[in-house]
Specification:
Blueprint (H helix, E strand, L loop, with lengths): L5 E7 L2 E7 L16 H23 L9 H14 L5 H13 L1 H8 L6
Antiparallel strand pairs: 1-2
Helix pairs in contact: 2-3
C-alpha cells in the first residue's frame, strides 16, 4: 500500500474529504477549488493547467527561453558594454538602439494585464 504522516477527515463547505499528508512516495496531489462563481473556478482551473504545462515543458526540455522582455534587456546590456569600446558618432547610434530595446520590457512591466 503506502504510508503517510497524517490522515484526517475534514469538512470543507458541505463536503467531507479524507486528507493524506506527509506521503514520502507520493507523486501526485489534489487541489480543491472553491469559489463564489463558476466563472472564477473555471478561470482558476485554466490558470493552474497553464502553470502545470509550463513546468512540465521545462522539465522535459533542458533549455528555456525567458520571456517578458528578458531577451531585449540582455541585448541592451551587451550593446551597452560594446558601446563603451566605441568613440564618436557610432556610439550615438548604439545608445539610441539601447533606448529603443528597453521599450518592450518597460511596456511589459507597466501594462501586464493588458498584453494578451
Amino acid at each position: 500500500m503506502g504510508e503517510c504522516d497524517l490522515f484526517e477527515e475534514v469538512q470543507i463547505g458541505n463536503e467531507r474529504y479524507n486528507l493524506f499528508t506527509g506521503c514520502p512516495k507520493a507523486k501526485t496531489c489534489t487541489l480543491i477549488l472553491r469559489g463564489g462563481a463558476e466563472q472564477f473556478i473555471d478561470e482558476t482551473e485554466r490558470s493552474l493547467h497553464d502553470a502545470i504545462m509550463i513546468v512540465r515543458r521545462a522539465l522535459k526540455n533542458d533549455s528555456v527561453v525567458a520571456g517578458g522582455g528578458a531577451i531585449e534587456m540582455e541585448l541592451s546590456k551587451e550593446l551597452r558594454n560594446y558601446a563603451k569600446t566605441i568613440h564618436g558618432r557610432s556610439n550615438f547610434s548604439l545608445l539610441l538602439m539601447l533606448r529603443l530595446s528597453k521599450i518592450i520590457p518597460r511596456n511589459c512591466v507597466t501594462m501586464p494585464g493588458l498584453m494578451l
